[in-house]
Amino acid sequence: MKTLKSVFSKTIVLSMTTALLITGCSKTSTDSPSTTTNATASAAASEAPKQVTLKFVTFGSGKQADSQEVWDEFNKKLATLLPNTKVEFEPIVNTAYADKWKLMAAAAEPIDIAWTGYVLDYPGEVNKGSYLELDALVDKFAPDLKKEIPAWVLDRARVNGKLYAIPNYQQAVDNRPTLRVPKEFIDKGYIDPKLAQETFYKYGPVSKESLAVIENYLEKLKQNNQLRKGFSTANLPGMQHHNMLTAPFKLAGDLKDPKSLKVVNIYETEQEQLFIKTMTDWYAKGYIRKDILSMQNQRQDEGKADGNIAWFHTMVGSIEDQSKIDSTRYGFPVQVIPMEEKYVISNLSDSTNLAIPRTSKNPERAMQLLNLLDSQKGKDLYNLLVWGIEGKHYKKISDTKIETIGYSGQGTPDAKYGQWNWASGNTANSFETQANPENFTKIWQDTNAGATISPLLGYKPNLDPIKTELAQIQAVVKEYAGSGATQIIETGAVPDSDAKYKEFIDKMKKAGSDKITAELQKQVDEFLKTKK
């Protein structure tokens, strides 16, 4: 690298010296062809981009056996698209990324491009000055990116109206809740999926009408001694938390009518009260296993042939495709029944992005590389970075589909090579793999296009005024509601759940839930004024 730079510098000096000598020997300074030629060459040399090496910190499966070979090929291809630019990669495995980033940031390590997303506090990093503002750089150096990525996608990475990262464009809709049931019980007439779907769409996933459909199914199973491991209570309430501001506070109302949007504590909603009351009733009737509170993972029986007879998960694309995927995954026929008709894009910040850290020494060139990774112009470069070398790391099935070698889905640390497409750029330009349903890219693009988009994209809550109250609330939630796959009050197994629920709400009030609601509502109202 130093040798190349030295040779390059000497070449420039030699060219300039030669031009001066020729000019000095000429009788005229205006008509000499040699003078004109050398002046043009000198100008061209001064305009040529300097040789730079960009440091790129990636997120995913970490360094693999063939990483260096792929990176060498990447730099060869990059030279034809972005001359005098080389990339030095520093891959960090996903589980170590948050801690590693903290060390890098504290040391002010020079980095030109870095992944940022769900394992970090993105707005917090912005407020600390970790990333450069990108609007001007995008306008000047990323015209293709700006043309090909929808504006609302970029809005998801805005903080206080300014852009600090480029979201890795992908499926962006919120979780769409669905009910999963073994298909054999549909064949036996225990539940009508069409009628169930119509009810869910009309009344919503958590309503008296929808829960009655599920209970009718459970009752028939119990009568025929086929409850197996019972009903899984996990995941349904959580999948409905569109427009979550900061748990457990979200926006309720019609996304198409901003004036109707109100900040609520999810545990105080009518739907949550109904869900807890219903689960308590179902537990008493034997639809939910008796030892659920002692289970470290209450979802352990989902998707097992002898396990739960109903559970909740998400879906992408068609009902038929998702049912096929699940049936293959679980090893027995499964029927997916969607519970919400419309997809929603309400997440206030994107979960996966590429940023230019404030320590970058080459932000302009870094943005030019991001322009390639996020546009058709750099499609082949992007796929090389993600999937590796054809014939060695994947087999080409068609122009758009490949079969990965040594793994399925996304790269693993022990694979020869294979990174994560959703952490590396615009997935609209990605190959589809054997793990995807047919026409997967078109499916998620159409899904995004048909979704209801929250008017609050770009809003990032300022939690500083309420951080003490939020910490107290989290402690109360953990005590009464649990977390993740270890729920408490929502299992229905808590004795005297009515009294416990009232106690739960009262403790949150004392911890400051009303103050949090008022502060977030004020921020939301102020943000919406800027959108008019």
From TrEMBL:
From what superkingdom does this record's organism come? Answer: Bacteria
Signal sequence coordinates: 1-21
DUF3502 domain residues: 455-529
Looking up SUPFAM superfamilies in the UniProt record yields: Periplasmic binding protein-like II
Q: Give UniProt keywords alphabetically.
A: Signal
Question: Cross-referenced PROSITE patterns, in alphabetical order?
Answer: PROKAR_LIPOPROTEIN
Q: Which sequence ranges are marked TM in the entry?
A: none
Query: Which InterPro entries does the entry mention?
Result: Bact_solute-bd_prot1, DUF3502
Name of the molecule in the record? DUF3502 domain-containing protein
What organism does this protein naturally occur in?
Answer: Paenibacillus plantarum
| Source taxonomy | Bacteria, Bacillati, Bacillota, Bacilli, Bacillales
